[in-house]
Records
---
Amino acid sequence: MTAYPPVSPYAAGLGGKCPRCGEGALFDGFLGLRKTCERCGLDYSKADAGDGPAVFVIFIVGFVAVAAAFMARFAWHAPLWLAFAISAGLAIGLTLLLLRPLKATLIALQYANKAAEGRLEE
């Protein structure tokens, strides 16, 4: 078995790289995972971030978008349609920007912490 140097799960996640070797690509497309790492052969079939990345993105983007809408409307006295357009554009842009790195980071953290399904010991 080949020994791999330790890879920071945060660096691997933010770069969209393999959590074991830190070099191979994790994604095939925008959010779809590859079957295996092309560098070290790590099987990604058990990697599942679930709804975690979407929940984090909703909380972060929701706070920023609502704050931007309030600032546009009440601090800058923008018309309602402009405040909505700013908020909607910011929400869409931040969602697309954050979803992929958060998904990769959660998968890398699962690998680093050897996450598995819960089992009852007998």
---
Amino acid sequence: MAKKDTYTEKQLTNLGNKLRELRIQQGFSNYEQFAYEHNLPRAQYGRYEQGQDLRFSSLLKVLKAFNVSLEDFFKDGFEEL
């Protein structure tokens, strides 16, 4: 498997950090509890917060659980090329 470039790695880290921030803002100190209450696979969601790659459809499902639009999610915290 090819190694991801630095830009991709950084953006995945940013994505994971943003998901963690949203979870904490919504009062969930534990990612497992958030995932459980929103019918998301707990281990898989934990990997997302760690900055591992995810499918677009999975991101949409997670953002729906947070009640956050794509536009709002990507508004801040991501670098341009």
---
Amino acid sequence: MAIAQEKIAEIYTEYGGSATNTGSIEGQVAVLTERINHISEHLKSNFKDHSSRLSLIKMVGRRKKFLKYIAKKDITNYRSLIKKLNIRK
């Protein structure tokens, strides 16, 4: 269920500035969103996979904390990121 390294590098390039800038908070939120979407699709067909469900809940919580930090730091960046990633808020 892992995402390919090429896809992760592409996400960091788009949101973090470069593929090697893995510490950017926007890039981390984008990668977490990709992983959350991937696991959500997995759980639609494998609804008894409780370990994946627990991982999903942890990732959603981590993304929520990151988004809270971005909102506190720069609200316009937060709003553009939410719109770009198509996250409900």
---
Amino acid sequence: MGAANAGTILAQISADGGGAIADAVVYAIPASGPASASQATALMAQENQEFTPFVLPVQVGTNVEFPNRDSFRHHVYSFSAAKPFELKLFSGKERQVVTFDKEGIIALGCNIHDNMLAYIYAVPTPYFAKTGDDGKATIANLGAGAYTLKVWHPTKKPAAKKLS
């Protein structure tokens, strides 16, 4: 894909009252269909008894590492249909990796610390971004063609719009 035909989507996600929505996943699916699986690696850390980041968008096929940066153990799990898994008690430099090979929402928890909650959202496209605190996201380097633009947030209803 050359720069001459590359496009960019600038998204602004806000609530009904006008306030910016952070941590929304914005993604564009080409009309030609889903892309091949990713070989990328991403991180979902445990730090200060929290998952970091709260929302992690990845392309289907991405390997996610779960480093524990706390001085105590965590027991990470998900019962989500898109990727049920369990990383039993671990701490320190142990390398825990999970491949997210199916599209969908994966809610994470810790069996030791009930307050820990986060989401991984595996999307079928390499064209995605997450909104910042200002509610803005940028998806760059889109090829020419039609796309369906979708938005997901853990506390909002999903939305979609066709773009040409």
